[in-house]
Amino acid sequence: MPIQVTCPSCLARFSVSDKYAGKKGPCPKCQKEITVPDKSQEVIIHAPEPTGPKDSKGVSVLKPIKRTEFSLTNVQLAIAGGITFVAIVMAFVGRFAFAPVPWWYLALGAVALSYPVAWAGYTFLKDDELGGYFGKELAIRLGACSAIFALTWGLYWFLAYYLGNKTLADVDGISFAIFLGVMIVGGALGSLACLELEFGQSLLHYVLYLGITFLLAVVAGVELAEPLSSNQKSNPYGLPNAQKPNPAKK
User: Fold this and answer.
1) What Å distances lie between residue 135 and 14, 28, 201, CA to CA?
2) How many Å from the N-terminal Cα to the C-terminal Cα in the chain?
3) Residue 152: Cβ-neighbour burial (10 angstroms; 0-12, 13-18, 19+)
4) C-alpha span between 207 and 250 (Å, rounded)
5) Alpha-carbon Rg of the chain, whole angstroms?
6) For residue 3, what is the enclosing H or E element?
7) Which phi and psi (to 5°) does residue 212 adopt?
8) pLDDT tens, 155-178?
9) Torsional sign, CA 192, 195, 197, 202
């Protein structure tokens, strides 16, 4: 069996036949004399003895835990593609079929997208080393998480109207930023509680849902706040600079 040798002068590593064990000779690189280690200096690393219950033949009866790698099947890809296509089509339908888009149409979209987006986000973000949730337990947890995601848009509408805005287009920029901050914190905490991800992962999980629904709302022509509104506010009389008409002037 070859002996591994390291030259103390140039630190070159090489192997020699075991018949040279304990003998001296020149290093093939720096030509300085070195001594080949003998068998008494050989270090043997033994594998740890298996623990746990064994059968009559001494073989462990416990099976190792296999790591489940993340992979998308063709069926999952087809479902994700179908949901994306339907969501885009419905956004364009809302843009051209309604003026403005009714609240129930927006609520339907927020609810319909919450579960598939929550499922897709968890599939990407979960830690394969920790295993995550599967089967019925995963379905229940995703259901609770998706309900929280959808309710964050309900929270946005509630805050908008509670503060006296007659339409979402009346929400000013500062209020819009504050509302989004409240939604992001609430959605991230919901994901954290339901799926036990890291907080950073939970934050990304909700932001994925928020970003998708926000973009679809823009495609549908929904004016979620004053900075996103394309219509200028008109004064009660429809005149520039809010000039009140003089009834005495003909």
Assistant:
1) 54, 62, 21
2) 116
3) buried
4) 58
5) 34
6) strand 3-6
7) -65, -50
8) 999 999 998 888 888 999 999 999
9) negative
